[in-house]
Amino acid sequence: MTKVPYHLAIIMDGNCRWARQRGLPSVSGHREGAETLKEIARHASDRDVRWLTAFAFSFENWSRPKPEIDGLLSLLRGFLENDIGELNEQNVKLRVIGDRQRFGSRLIDLIDWAERSTSGNTGLNLTLALDYGGRQEIVSAMRQLAVEVETGILAVDDIKEDVIKSRMTSAALPEIDLLIRTGGEQRISNFMLWDVSYAEFYFSPVLWPDFSKEDFVRALNDFTSRDRRFGGDTVSEINERVTSIADKRRSS
Q1: Active-site residue among 46, 61, 83, 91?
Q2: pLDDT confidence band for 241 (50 / 70 / 90)
Q3: Is the pLDDT of residue 252 over 50?
Q4: What pLDDT does 249 receive?
Q5: Nearest Cα to Cα of residue 180 among 61, 76, 37
Q6: Which helix (H) or strand (E) holds 147?
């Protein structure tokens, strides 16, 4: 069976450039990008990807022009108000990671409602990273742990990798297997710093609104062709050793 990433993450870059090339406002690019995400989520589910995380609104995005921010938030509200029924039909479970407090009470309530409404679904786990920054997430977890140590809830020696992860907004998410970035840039832009430790990276020159099923399949095929080492031997080398040991035991 062809291997697929268990957890696929995407930095959806190129919306604004797509719009500028067509003489359109930035929000038009974001709107088209939202439609692309829906299509890629369907393809990911069809290919048995279990977790899909999309970088939808970064911590740094607040510095963008107000009309663009307002447009992005309007698209998010529209998605939460109109598309949750479709997610339920497709058995998709929605999560949001990041600091949602700056979004205002109405949008926060919508996010909470959408998560509750899809919480029983058992298909694709779709996660939107909103007002998210990798460094900010780690700092927040460290602050929480510092308070727990100071108040005696935890001892310093209790702090292990799994404990740190459990204090992150992305605590429920597994480590990332494949990170796709579109738009031609080759950096991770403060995204999921903890969970990309052993991820494979795939950089596509295609602007996100134009990212097609064929582009997606190309990225998955590239992932399939790689031997992942996880800091040591490749998966195929490990499998060869396991097979060799099993053969020796059967022949003895």
Answers
A1: 61
A2: very low
A3: no
A4: 40
A5: 37
A6: helix 134-150
Q: Taking 80 as the threshold, does the pLDDT of residue 43 lie above it?
A: yes
Query: Do the Cβ atoms of 52 and 126 come closer than 8 Å?
Result: yes
- Please report which confidence band the pLDDT of residue 34 belongs to, taking 50, 70 and 90 as the band edges: very high
At 94 the three-state DSSP class reads strand
Q: Which domains does the chain have, with CATH numbers?
A: 7-134+173-251 (3.40.1180.10)
Which pairing describes strands 93-97 and 7-11: parallel, antiparallel, or unpaired? unpaired
* Helix or strand (DSSP H, E) at 224: helix 213-224
What integer is the mean pLDDT of 205-233? 90
* Calpha distance 132→88 (Å, rounded): 25
Look over the chain and give the mean of its residue pLDDT values, rounded to a whole number. 91
Q: Report phi then psi at 237, rounded to 5.
A: -65, -40
Task: Check if 82 is active-site.
Answer: no
Among 167, 162, 171, smallest CA distance to 142 is for 167
Q: Bridge-partner residues for 70, per DSSP?
A: none
Tokens of 114: 């959408």
Q: What is the pLDDT of residue 215?
A: 98
The span from the CA of 136 to the CA of 189, in Å, is 12
What is the pLDDT, as a whole number, of residue 60?
Answer: 86
238 three-state secondary structure: helix
If you average pLDDT over residues 162-187, what whole number do you get? 97
109 included as an active-site residue:
no
Distance separating alpha carbons of residues 83 and 92, to the nearest angstrom: 11
